[in-house]
Amino acid sequence: MPTFELGPNQYGKAETRLVRVERGPAGDRITDLNVSVALRGDLAASHLTGDNAGVLPTDTQKNTVYAFAREFGIDGIEAFAERLAEHFVASQPSIHEARVSIQQYPWQDVDGAHTFRRDGSEVRTATVHHGHYGTQTVSGVTGLVLLKTTDSEFHGFVQDRYTTLPETRDRILATSVDATWRAVQGRPDPAAARAALVEAFADTYSLALQQTLFAMGSRVLQRCPEVLEVRLSLPNRHHFLVDLAPFGLDNPNEVYFAADRPYGLIEGVVRRDGVAIPEEVAWTF
Amino acid sequence: MPTFELGPNQYGKAETRLVRVERGPAGDRITDLNVSVALRGDLAASHLTGDNAGVLPTDTQKNTVYAFAREFGIDGIEAFAERLAEHFVASQPSIHEARVSIQQYPWQDVDGAHTFRRDGSEVRTATVHHGHYGTQTVSGVTGLVLLKTTDSEFHGFVQDRYTTLPETRDRILATSVDATWRAVQGRPDPAAARAALVEAFADTYSLALQQTLFAMGSRVLQRCPEVLEVRLSLPNRHHFLVDLAPFGLDNPNEVYFAADRPYGLIEGVVRRDGVAIPEEVAWTF
Amino acid sequence: MPTFELGPNQYGKAETRLVRVERGPAGDRITDLNVSVALRGDLAASHLTGDNAGVLPTDTQKNTVYAFAREFGIDGIEAFAERLAEHFVASQPSIHEARVSIQQYPWQDVDGAHTFRRDGSEVRTATVHHGHYGTQTVSGVTGLVLLKTTDSEFHGFVQDRYTTLPETRDRILATSVDATWRAVQGRPDPAAARAALVEAFADTYSLALQQTLFAMGSRVLQRCPEVLEVRLSLPNRHHFLVDLAPFGLDNPNEVYFAADRPYGLIEGVVRRDGVAIPEEVAWTF
Amino acid sequence: MPTFELGPNQYGKAETRLVRVERGPAGDRITDLNVSVALRGDLAASHLTGDNAGVLPTDTQKNTVYAFAREFGIDGIEAFAERLAEHFVASQPSIHEARVSIQQYPWQDVDGAHTFRRDGSEVRTATVHHGHYGTQTVSGVTGLVLLKTTDSEFHGFVQDRYTTLPETRDRILATSVDATWRAVQGRPDPAAARAALVEAFADTYSLALQQTLFAMGSRVLQRCPEVLEVRLSLPNRHHFLVDLAPFGLDNPNEVYFAADRPYGLIEGVVRRDGVAIPEEVAWTF
Fold it and tell me: Can you name the CATH fold of C140-285?
């Protein structure tokens, strides 16, 4: 009878929704998080025989997230994720690696006191891996939707049998930025990184979304000296100029159809030159 | 053989995605819309025999949306919806009523020139009915998410066999505002209406979300003299205080679990007293 | 100071997720529901002063849903919704009307015993209104996606300045059926109604989706003698033949692009001729 | 001035929606796909200077997908993805690697002729990487939702300060299977792999979802001799027994609350023992 072996594996509690309120005389602050934990270690027995002696229940992981928010507060999502990841590995002999991913939903103060409005424009992210390789922290932003009405061209591309796209010297360029950045030392300022992304998107005269991507990554590296590497995933949200000629109308780059699918997807890494940086930890599933 | 009759019916093109760019020396402006059209009229033949002589294709409706954006511009979603609705009825003998619903996605200027950031916080809406009853315009906002960290109680409610909810003198109150308002004359300022909603949510000491709802509707009526009626649909997005006692911790209204489902849903209309207002047109499907 | 009045209003617990398991020697059965309750009555005090003496908390409504599933079982979603709606009105002096809406998610038995597979193809629905008008029950199905590869034409339609659509004698017709049906007496068989919808979609040679809609509604009326009225909301999910000529290829109705937006939306009611049927109750918000 | 370098990068057209109809005297067949292409190669110039001489536009990739569906047909999503991936690398000197991912939406024949019903229960997947490492094909299924009403326990787990979960000897076990499998030679039968997943979920008496995961992966390896490795991502969709005691009712494993978030997430790989298998190609972004 053939036998089979257990390969890489992990488990944890995903999407624990935590809202923390800090109450103060000068007004409250709220922190709104979605926390996902994944753990690795000596977990073969649970898979092979259902012996859970090494399994910290995912329910306990959820409890720990809530308890830590009270015990230690939340001084930034990176620090909170690191504290949690280190705790699971340090406290459980069976757990050797932990990944904690956090999404933070921003809120705007409305009245300087107790009322807040959800700012749905974008989400801050942090992912921490902790294990024999130490602690690796990746920060980011996702869902940051940007659009330029001009200063974007696309031409000079490969032509083959299946090419019908005309070259363009002026198009709308729109994307939803999904960016992450890594430092080995220090804590990069996420507001500075985000501002660099927006600024470079705005002031780069674009001959390709790839060129804009490289400019955006480079700008983060310029503004945030601790950052060694930036990853960008940029959908090209096509806006097609509508042909109004059948109705006796011209369309001088004014009226567009915003398409859903398909879309281009441009992804790439921009790194600080000549600086050694350890491979990014990724648990592939 | 039994026969069957056609009751109320309508058809149209839904979710035409239109982006218009106004280009100017002092910077561009963009208008980002999702336009849905529905038409009623002498359409029995199409249903009964497939005779489409009275049917203006939904594809033509889409074309009209794009063409009108170029021919007439977009001076507010209410005016654009009214123009479209009146056109379909005026130009087609077979069409007697039109409903045009528009969602507007806001964008923030980034550089004072050509670059914009999508503001995902809320969506502006307008729905226009045009027919033998004239033109009825309903404006609104949806997806406006608000939260208060205090100044909300809930007690004194009915107790029956199935009641387990404890009374509370201090809770988080959170909702996602879906509001519409109607005027018979004039064009209410949507920014003023929206500001009134936020302000009343913030400064109303709440004994029930129903009380907050009435206060929000009343505030719009106070601030916008043209408005005769406000409709509000307010989900009660529960935030439950986490019991940390098992971990030897107190929880002085600090750490909450934000629940997805189920949720309360509080809905109501607030009207100007003693003012006749025609019934709101609604095509029920 | 102007005063404002409270218009129509309602409140309740939405989306209570309930799974019931009936355990038996010949295998288990599961019922998977999403239950939403809305109540109307003497609720002005809660809105005007925050006096909740007439308010049955939404939390209690949720508890009641779970308790009734145990006390009375679930003998069909219509009966379960009716029982709940009648209970809220009968047991609470302040509550005069109730609406209970249920979505049922189907599961397929896998092993004749304890294991089930979620059938994601469609959802069964029921909505019950109970009040001074008695009890009105509407049954339905939603998310039933159908496609015909041929036997669909569209021509003879209105041509105006904005028309570019060519006539077609052969196209794909695809929709996602959202249907409801009403009886005044008796309990129509939902499986028969659903089968009638599918069958009429399949065997109707279609000159317009409107014609297919009328045929589908009529077929339900033919097959289900208790049904007096059928409502249908049918998006026209466009499938566009791709122009392959630039690549030196023909495309004999073989390769299509399935578009997301915009889409046509065809809606209508089909009624039994010459039969009085009370207006459908609808709480408009 | 610091300089920055371009790291790993890729681009392509995502989510091209393709429906192919094969017309025959014994009835039609439809193939409904969502195709995403990503390419790697000599693309630095586009990033650094906007020189697109090596860039095959994503629009051309989309055209190629449609043209290939006509030219070569679609004999399974794996073969179609392989043909596309090999084409992009073979035909473009600048392109060295290609990844083609396909989702297939299943449809059920309704009338043996021209009408089909979308089966929304699950989606078939294939991902092909083609490059210097040859061609690697990964097949899978996602969205396969399974539930067991019994034969699931969870106890003997780690207890720490943050543990409150009681042990259970009988619970509902529910998940949404996301599975992929790999072979180096041959073409595993996806129906057999899927059946093995369902069967093992059903007949494994479960002491942990991890144990069920290993059993499911092992069963695929048993039934599909070509498969060398199975990856499984299994959310633990919690169903909590509702406490009905406050209402004077027992709850003998009958009435449950189906929770949305948080959820457990159990992931792992099961491999054929002692068989060399190349690392799975993954482009990390």
Answer: Urate Oxidase (3.10.270)
CA dihedral (C96, C186, C213, D108) positive or negative: positive
- Residue C231 distance to chain D (closest CA, Å): 20
In angstroms, rounded to a whole number, what is the distance separating the alpha carbons of residues B190 and A46? 59
Domain boundaries C8-132, CATH class: alpha beta
What are the residues whose beta carbons fall under 8 Å from the beta carbon of C236, sequence distance 6 or more? B58, C173, C174, C175, C209, C263, C264, C265, C266
Closest Cα in chain B, distance from residue D239 (Å): 13
Q: Where are the domains of chain C?
A: 8-132, 140-285
Q: Tell me which fold the domain B136-285 belongs to.
A: Urate Oxidase (3.10.270)
- CA-CA distance, C157 to B55, in Å (whole number)? 5
D15 touches chain C (CB under 8 A): no
Does C132 reach chain B within 8 Å, measured CB to CB?
no
Looking at residue D285, its pLDDT comes to 59
pLDDT in tens, A88-103: 999 999 999 999 999 9
| Residues in chain B, total | 285
Q: Does A1-132 match A140-285 in CATH topology?
A: yes
CB neighbour list of residue C41: distance below 8 Å, 6 or more residues apart: C54, C92, C94, C95, C96, C97
Closest CA to A214 of D5, D11, D56, D55: D5
Query: What is the bridge-based pairing of β-strands A239-241 and A255-258?
Result: antiparallel
Query: Minimal Cα distance from C245: which residue of A?
Result: A162
Tell which D residues from 24 to 83 touch C, by Cβ distance under 8 Å.
28, 30, 32, 63, 66-67, 69-71
Per-residue pLDDT tens digits for B75-134: 999 999 999 999 999 999 999 999 999 999 999 999 999 999 999 989 999 999 999 999
Record: contact B52-C157, CB cut-off 8 A: yes
Top residue of C16, C17, C19, C122 to mutate, by most chain D CBs within 10 Å, is C19
Question: In the numeric block, which tokens belong to residue A176?
Answer: 């939803």
The answer to whether C5 faces chain D, any CB pair under 8 Å, is no
Query: Which of these is catalytic: B47, B58, B135, B175?
Result: B58
Q: Which residue has the tokens 């089968």?
A: C195
User: What number of other Cβ atoms are within 10 A of residue B248's Cβ?
Assistant: 9
Radius of gyration of chain A measured on its C-alpha atoms: 23
pLDDT in tens, C47-56: 999 999 999 9
> Considering the domain D1-132 in this protein, what is its CATH number?
3.10.270.10
Structure tokens at B146: 């608000």
Mapping DSSP to helix (H, G, I), strand (E, B) and coil, where does residue B271 land? Answer: strand
C-beta of residue B107 within 8 angstroms of C-beta of residue B32: yes
As a whole number of angstroms, the distance between CA B210 and CA B207 comes to 8
- C 199-228 near D (Cβ less than 8 A): 201-203
Q: Are C33 and C77 in contact (CB under 8 A)?
A: yes
D203 exposed, middle or buried (CB, 10 Å; 0-12, 13-18, 19+)?
A: middle
Please check the confidence at residue C158 and state whether its pLDDT lies above 90. yes
Is residue C284 over pLDDT 80?
no
pLDDT of residue C283: 86
Find, in chain A, the residue whose alpha carbon is nearest to that of B248: A67
ipTM for this prediction: 0.97
Q: Which two tokens stand for residue D120?
A: 């929304």
Nearest to C2 by CA among D226, B222, B7, A249: B222
Run of H or E residues at B118: strand B115-118
Chains touching B (at least 3 CB pairs under 8 A) are: A, C, D
Q: Which segments of chain B have a pLDDT < 70?
A: 1-2, 284-285
* Nearest CA distance, C143 vs chain B (angstrom): 15
CB pairs under 8 A between A and C: 11
Low-confidence ranges of chain A (pLDDT < 50): none
User: Is D135's Cβ below 8 Å from some Cβ in A?
Assistant: no
C164–chain A nearest CA distance, Å:
7
* pTM for this prediction: 0.98
